[in-house]
Write a structure and sequence with these properties.
The complex is a heterodimer of chains A (547) and B (195).
Chain A lengths: L20 H6 L3 H30 L9 H35 L8 H19 L28 H30 L12 H33 L12 H35 L6 H15 L15 H10 L1 H15 L8 H23 L2 H7 L3 H31 L5 H27 L14 H32 L37 H15 L1
Helix pairs in contact in A: 2-3, 2-4, 2-15, 3-5, 3-6, 3-7, 3-13, 4-5, 5-6, 6-7, 6-8, 7-8, 7-10, 7-11, 7-13, 8-10, 10-11, 11-13, 11-14, 13-14, 14-15
Chain B lengths: L1 H14 L15 H30 L7 E8 L2 E6 L4 E4 L7 E5 L3 E8 L4 E5 L4 E5 L5 E6 L4 E7 L11 E7 L1 H14 L8
Parallel strand pairs in B: 1-5, 4-10
Antiparallel strand pairs in B: 1-2, 2-3, 5-8, 6-7, 6-9, 9-10
Classes of the chains: A mainly alpha (547), B alpha+beta (195).
């Protein structure tokens, strides 16, 4: 039995010449849009990272040396905003855009033009927000959470705050539109034979991630609209002096804000669930449990938002505490299943696999510290301190970065036809791993000692030591990122040719050429399991066994 | 927990590193094992939740007869401590750290309000903090067990000089506290510069 011809729409002769800038400006191809998303998000990441280095310099020693309070406040506000909303939530949309249609055997997404619109809205939202660096008064200095009344026009005048709102609202609409498109694609565009329970875990991750976006982003978009109206047209949604309620904003913000963590991390779980089986040469342990765990996490994520508000005295504590802790259960299932996948396998330590193992490690630290944050008496102590900063950087930065870079090393050959250098990759990996832990592990201690977050200066001189260590670590991380950039540019031109399937992959994208043709597949093998590429590769052996 | 899981991770990395080219046994899962590692974390969560509720009740417990009631007003970017019924008031400013003087070992009722934006009252030594939200009044009790001076901060970002929004708690013996209070009310409020 050979491959089955899948009816594909009649296509013009494939144009295989290199795509120029104009192609990218007018494209509706999901792969090019995916690349645009990834590049834009990565540029935002670099920018946000530079901001972080600047304020880490300020924090290295007690006293004010590098910048004033206002600049410091603006920098950490924009750092948090762009990292969480314009990088972390978007890079997975980029990877999903590129890879998901390939993984389900589709020629493109369901609504290619909507897809392009979503990207351009995101880009211009980002540019609008960043343009606030050039207006009088500079960018918003409200913290990325922008709690009113501080973010109201009475306390923060200037267009910077308004541009912040408009930029994020555009990006929010982009995310909602994009989610409609990607969810529809997964439900409607799978190739025959690709049942839901044969989809790769990365595609599942994208599905659940986009479903969460669909429910969570409207809340923040509404909150932003209300804040904008409060600021500019004198409504009083959040103004306590005229009957408004500041707590309402906190509810709306975190009703989005906590699911946002899972928007960021679920596709990363998906990436890890692709990498670990391939480099362990085993199928994913407990495939269905992994899928159910995705949905468990997604459902719980909408019932935990007020754990960010334990110290408001305006919520019922036990409910949110219990649901928060319960998230540890499906997350634990995932971690155990990854280890179960490695157990008894034949593991090779390529850069993607190293990243995946580092991911499991840092996520374990982030997850366990997170369970304790869910415990109200502990939260009363460490809420809004560096403990929280360390915790969410372990989850949102380390876990995200290791999974993302693991994904980059894993799929770069598919996207470009060339491998990234393993030697530079190992340098990149170790610098990032050591730099990250040096930067953030000491912050747990600072938090337990009571150092508040978001302060430009600290009154207790003994905190200086940990802060110096943390700043040194952040520059080691930056060095690691520079090695990655070098690796990227060198390998793009002179990297080893990868062939179609350099890693002996499992999912459908490894069957097509690297890079894939415009319409993705010339032919698609028949699908019998969640590992069509594996089956395709081993079919000869299996048939021999059968005989 | 961390050691157990990290140990399993490291063990499988070492034990199952690639040695040959043959394909390992293709195991797809094990329902019993998976059920086990669902139920054990679930039990741990339940235990932690019970402990949490006990700790929470202790942290939020309020005395029927607090020794002292202080009205704490947070504002950009300092604090005002008003001793209720005593006519004593301590007002700080960003460059002038206010001091809250309290007797040792006795429950102090804090009545917290904000004059402008959201702030948060936090003394690391008490292991407790609470947001001061404009339009709301919130109450809690703190008991300081040891004589000494403790640092306090605003921990909810509240604008330009958020990092200067400090205060100190000076815990003194009940006798010392009485004389301080008497002197402070004689010298007339608002008073009490810090440093």
């Amino acid at each position: 039995m050979a491959t089955t011809e899948i009816p594909l729409p009649a296509l013009p002769e494939a144009h295989e010449e290199r795509a120029g800038l104009v192609d990218y400006l007018i494209t509706v191809d999901h792969k090019k849009i995916g690349v645009l998303y990834i590049f834009t998000a990565f540029a935002v990441f670099l920018f946000g990272g530079v901001l972080a280095l600047l304020f880490r310099l300020e924090l290295a020693q007690p006293g004010m040396q590098v910048m004033g309070q206002n600049t410091y406040n603006q920098l950490f506000t924009i750092h948090g905003t762009v990292m969480v909303l314009l990088f972390a939530a978007q890079v997975s949309t980029g990877l999903g855009n590129y890879l998901m249609p390939l993984q389900i055997g589709a020629a493109d997404v369901a609504f290619p033009r909507l897809n392009a619109m979503s990207y351009w809205l995101y880009l211009f939202g980002t540019l609008v927000l960043l343009s606030s660096f050039f207006v009088a008064g500079g960018p918003a200095a409200s913290g990325w959470t922008a709690y009113p009344p501080l973010s109201d026009s009475k306390y923060l005048q200037g267009t910077g705050m308004d541009l912040w709102i408009i930029g994020l609202a555009l990006a929010g609409i982009a995310a909602i539109v994009g989610a409609v498109n990607l969810v529809t694609t997964i439900f409607r565009m799978r190739v025959p034979g690709m049942t839901m329970f044969r989809m790769p875990l990365f595609t599942w991750g994208i599905l659940v991630n986009q479903l969460i976006i669909l429910f969570a982003f409207p809340a923040i978009t509404a909150a932003l609209a209300m804040l904008f109206i409060d600021r500019n047209f004198g409504a009083a949604f959040f103004d306590p002096t005229r009957g408004g309620t500041p707590v309402l904003y906190q509810h709306l913000f975190w009703f989005f804000g906590h699911p946002e963590v899972y928007i960021v991390i679920l596709p990363m779980f998906g990436i890890i669930s692709e990498i670990v089986p391939v480099f362990s040469r085993k199928p994913l342990f407990g495939y269905r449990a992994m899928v159910f765990a995705f949905f468990g996490i997604a459902a719980l994520s909408f019932g935990v938002w007020a754990h960010h508000m334990f110290t408001t005295d305006a919520i019922y504590l036990p409910f949110f505490s219990l649901l928060t802790m319960l998230i540890a259960v499906p997350t634990g299932i995932k971690i155990f299943n990854w280890i179960g996948t490695m157990w008894g396998g034949s593991i090779s330590f390529t850069t993607p696999m190293l990243c995946a193992i580092a991911f499991i490690f840092v996520f374990l630290v982030g997850g366990i510290t997170g369970v304790f944050l869910g415990s109200t008496p502990i939260d009363f102590q460490v809420n809004d301190t560096y403990y929280v900063v360390a915790h969410f950087h372990y989850v949102m930065v380390a876990a995200l970065l290791f999974a993302m870079f693991g994904g980059f090393y894993f799929w770069f050959p598919k996207m470009t036809g060339r491998l990234l250098s393993e030697r530079l990759g190992k340098w990149h990996f170790w610098l990032l791993f050591i730099g990250f832990n040096v930067t953030f592990f000491v912050q747990f201690n600072l938090g337990l000692e009571g150092m508040p977050r978001r302060i430009a200066d600290y009154p207790i001189r003994s905190w200086g030591t940990y802060n110096t260590i943390s700043t040194v670590g952040s520059f080691v991380m930056a060095l690691g990122i520079l090695v990655f950039l070098w690796n990227f540019f060198v390998s793009l031109r002179r990297g080893r040719p990868a062939g179609d399937d350099p890693w002996e992959g499992n999912s459908l994208e490894w069957v097509t050429t690297s890079p894939p043709p415009h319409h993705n597949f010339h032919e698609i093998p028949e699908i019998h399991s969640e590992r069509p590429a594996f089956d395709h590769r081993h079919r000869a052996a299996t048939e021999a066994d059968a005989r | 927990m961390f050691l157990v899981v990290a140990g399993l991770l490291v063990w499988s990395m070492i034990r199952y590193r690639r040695r040959g080219d043959e394909l390992p046994p293709q195991i797809h899962g094990n329902n019993k094992l998976e059920l086990t590692w669902t139920l054990i974390p679930l039990l741990l969560v339940i235990v932690l939740f019970v402990v949490t509720i006990q700790g929470q009740n202790k942290a939020l417990q309020r005395s029927t007869r607090p020794a002292l009631e202080v009205d704490v007003l947070a504002f950009q970017w300092s604090w005002r401590f008003a001793y209720e019924g005593q006519g004593v008031e301590v007002v700080g400013s960003p460059g002038n750290v206010p001091e809250l003087v309290v007797p040792v070992g006795q429950p102090v009722r804090i009545r917290l309000r904000s004059a402008d934006v959201v702030h948060s009252f936090y003394v690391p030594r008490t292991l407790f903090k609470r947001q001061a939200i404009p339009g709301r009044t919130t109450e809690f009790d703190l008991t300081f067990e040891k004589v000494g001076t403790y640092q306090g901060h605003c921990v909810q970002f509240c604008g330009l000089a958020h990092d200067d929004m400090l205060f100190r708690v000076r815990v003194v013996s009940p006798g010392e506290f009485r004389s301080w209070l008497a002197q402070a009310s004689r010298s007339g409020s608002p008073s009490q510069p810090g440093t």
